[in-house]
């Protein structure tokens, strides 16, 4: 493939590009990247994923918005990612401003800088992007010379820990009101208005827009929130999320950008639905993306053909929170199998529940050499699975493993969480016991001549982080020491099993999980700590080799902020949370009821079995209206 002509266009010299790892991260010009004449557009929008290129290029949301913006004749959307640490150092030493990939123009020259917030541990990278761009880190310090900095993505469902760094946030799904927002910007700019005028009008007129500078928070003596109120007339006290109810009519990138280098998810992504019916009590995505909405089979067939033709990719992946729950999965997979067989394209099926149908599908689409299967019981005991509303029994798990083993798989990954509410030592021991039962099942079911080598069980545990807009938002979180003790207990329990040699165990970093918990439920006081930590050198905190817990603890101490306030204490019933001014469509009284059910170890049926009155019915569609015209009760 011939590269585009980059002569006289690149922001970085050949010498710099040859001195850094993977220079293709910074040159742009990828297949399907959009070039426009900047003199003929009214709005320039720079879309940012605050992590390294390979991670950001794997994110579907960026591709969707990039495609949507560039369909507008008056808008040119470009991209920027966090420079890796080697280039970061060079740019600071040589005063090279951060630039967008398509035009190689400085980010500060744009009208908007849109930053997607997918993971709390990327917050210092947000500051890196602003800093390298020459944009003041604090919104209050910006002038007309600076772009409007707007945040979006799941972390905006509690934007307070990073609110001082943003001019505005877009709450919800991005396909709905951006056109209105951009038109208002054009009108205000043509009228000679300043950024404050634009922000005020946007907050008043555009649903889903949160402008932090237009609100005030007061606190009680115990440091919890007393009130959160607008400071300007006409600004909403409560901001409802934006949501796409007809996914078939929503824009979708049928010609997504194809990178020159291998990225984390190097494949075409076909989004089949949004939302999840299951209602796991620890899962934020399962709440904030309600109700479940599906794309039609015909639209998905068309998209698949267009994307494969437009990219030349060799793999297509189905994207959703729970692919097994898509109503037309069997028909879609049959179509893809026929299409992909002709084109010699692989099919990836993540987020499947392990049942007979799913295993049959995977057996057809995978090579003769089976890859590992993933089970996510989340908890070892049935009691704790009921607490978290996982909807899996041990019988279902073992039956799924049996089907997998007889179907030719011998490698199984098991995912669990440690530190869940009400967890006991017995619950931890049962992680090891369930893993041992699955390993033993392999040898019980298969005679020696039918085994494809020894069974391999990989047990991974993450540490529970309570998230906003979940029933567990009231729960306390374990300390780093408690997490490590639980991991040690799990390891000891696995070592005591008969099949211990067949079971490998690993766990997530405890200090990173604690920090994630602080950011997830923090208020604006945490912003001071994030700023101080960045000034002390914290960056790429999502990468284990760069996370420095000691620097973070120093930052908390210097800012006079107690990290334990956000983690180890249990919230009281009527407490005002930093995110309570947002309406995600799920009512707080529903979440409180689910919190009570968790403590009683009661299971709640999924959305297709019985409506629980969560509040998502207000959106007028999706799973809430599947069974009858009038909707669920």
**Sheet bearing the most strands, described?**
6 strands, mixed
Strands side by side in the biggest sheet? 2-1-3-4-5-6
How far apart are the termini?
57 Å
> In terms of quaternary structure, what is this?
single chain
Overall geometry comes to globular
Structural class: alpha/beta
Quick check: average pLDDT? 94
Percent helix: 25-40%
Quick one: how many beta strands?
A: 19
Strand content: 5-15%
Catalogue the unreliable spans. Answer: 628-633
Instruction: Please count the helical segments.
Output: 19
Radius of gyration: 25 Å
Structural account:
- It contains 19 helices and 19 strands.
- The relative contact order is 0.10.
- The chain starts with 13 loop residues before the first helix and ends in a 34-residue tail after the last helix.
- It is globular and about 75 Å long.
- The chain has a six-stranded mixed beta sheet with strand order 2-1-3-4-5-6. A four-stranded parallel beta sheet has the order 15-16-17-18. Strands 10-13-14 form a three-stranded parallel beta sheet, covered by helices on one side.
- α5 (123-133) crosses α17, α13 (394-406) packs parallel to α14 (425-445) and α14 (425-445) runs parallel beside α15 (480-495).
- It has helices at 14-19, 53-56, 60-71, 85-94, 123-133, 178-190, 195-205, 285-288, 297-311, 329-343, 356-365, 382-387, 394-406, 425-445, 480-495, 510-521, 525-535, 549-559, 588-599; strands at residues 43-49, 75-81, 112-116, 148-152, 168-170, 209-210, 215-219, 225-230, 239-240, 268-271, 273-274, 293-294, 315-319, 346-348, 373-378, 411-418, 456-463, 503-507, 582-583.
- Helix content is 34%, strand content 14%.
């Amino acid at each position: 493939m011939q590269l585009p002509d980059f002569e006289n266009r690149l922001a970085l010299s050949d010498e710099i590009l040859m001195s850094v790892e993977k220079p293709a991260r910074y040159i742009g010009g990828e297949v399907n990247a959009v070039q426009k004449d900047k003199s003929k557009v009214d709005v320039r929008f720079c879309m940012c994923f605050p992590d390294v290129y390979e991670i950001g290029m794997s994110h579907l949301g960026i591709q969707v918005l990039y495609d949507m913006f560039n369909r507008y004749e008056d808008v040119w959307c470009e991209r920027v990612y966090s420079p890796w640490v080697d280039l970061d150092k060079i740019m600071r030493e040589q005063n090279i401003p951060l630039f967008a990939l398509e035009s190689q123009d400085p980010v500060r020259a744009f009208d908007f800088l849109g930053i997607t917030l997918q993971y709390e541990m990327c917050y210092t990278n947000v500051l890196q992007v602003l800093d390298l761009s020459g944009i003041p880190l604090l919104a209050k310090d910006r002038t007309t010379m600076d772009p409007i900095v707007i945040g979006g993505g799941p972390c905006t469902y509690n934007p307070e820990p990073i609110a001082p760094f943003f001019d505005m946030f877009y709450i919800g799904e991005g396909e709905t009101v951006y056109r209105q927002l951009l038109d208002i910007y054009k009108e205000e700019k043509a009228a000679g208005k300043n950024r404050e005028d634009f922000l005020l009008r946007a907050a008043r007129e555009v649903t889903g827009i949160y402008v932090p500078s237009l609100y005030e928070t007061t606190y009680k003596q115990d440091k919890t929130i007393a009130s959160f109120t607008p400071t300007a007339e006409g600004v909403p006290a409560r901001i409802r999320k934006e949501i796409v109810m007809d996914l078939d009519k929503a824009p979708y990138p049928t010609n997504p950008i194809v990178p020159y280098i291998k990225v984390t998810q190097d494949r075409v992504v076909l989004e089949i639905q949004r939302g999840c019916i299951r209602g796991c009590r620890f899962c934020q995505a399962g709440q904030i993306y309600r109700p479940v909405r599906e794309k039609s089979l015909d639209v998905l067939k068309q998209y698949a053909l267009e994307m494969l033709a437009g990219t030349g990719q060799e793999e297509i992946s189905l994207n959703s929170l729970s692919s097994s729950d898509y109503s037309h999965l069997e028909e879609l997979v049959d179509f893809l199998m026929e299409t992909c067989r002709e084109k010699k394209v692989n099919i990836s099926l993540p987020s499947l529940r392990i049942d007979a149908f799913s295993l049959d599908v995977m057996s057809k689409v995978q090579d003769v050499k089976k890859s590992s299967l993933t089970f996510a019981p989340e908890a070892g005991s049935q009691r704790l699975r009921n607490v978290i509303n996982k909807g899996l029994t041990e019988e279902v798990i073992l039956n799924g493993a049996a089907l997998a083993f007889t179907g030719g798989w011998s490698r199984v990954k098991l995912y669990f969480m440690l530190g869940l509410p009400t967890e006991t030592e017995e619950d931890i021991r049962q992680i090891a016991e369930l893993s041992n039962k699955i390993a033993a099942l392999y040898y019980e079911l298969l005679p020696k001549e039918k085994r494809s080598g020894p069974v391999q069980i990989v047990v991974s545990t993450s540490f529970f982080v309570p998230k906003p807009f979940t029933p567990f938002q009231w729960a306390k979180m374990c300390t780093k020491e408690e997490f490590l003790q639980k991991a040690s207990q799990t390891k000891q329990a696995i070592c005591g099993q008969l099949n211990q040699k067949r079971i490998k165990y690993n766990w997530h970093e405890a200090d990173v999980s604690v920090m994630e918990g602080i950011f997830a439920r923090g208020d604006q006081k945490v912003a001071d700590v994030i700023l101080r930590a960045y000034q002390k050198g914290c960056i790429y905190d999502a990468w284990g080799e760069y996370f420095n817990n000691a620097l973070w603890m120093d930052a908390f101490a210097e800012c006079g902020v107690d990290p334990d306030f956000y983690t180890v204490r249990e919230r009281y019933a009527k407490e005002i949370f930093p995110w309570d001014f947002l309406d995600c469509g799920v009512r707080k009284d529903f979440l409180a009821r689910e919190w009570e059910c968790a403590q009683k170890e009661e299971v709640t049926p999924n959305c297709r079995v019985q409506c629980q009155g969560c509040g998502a019915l207000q959106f007028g569609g999706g799973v809430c209206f599947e069974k009858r015209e009038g909707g669920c009760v």
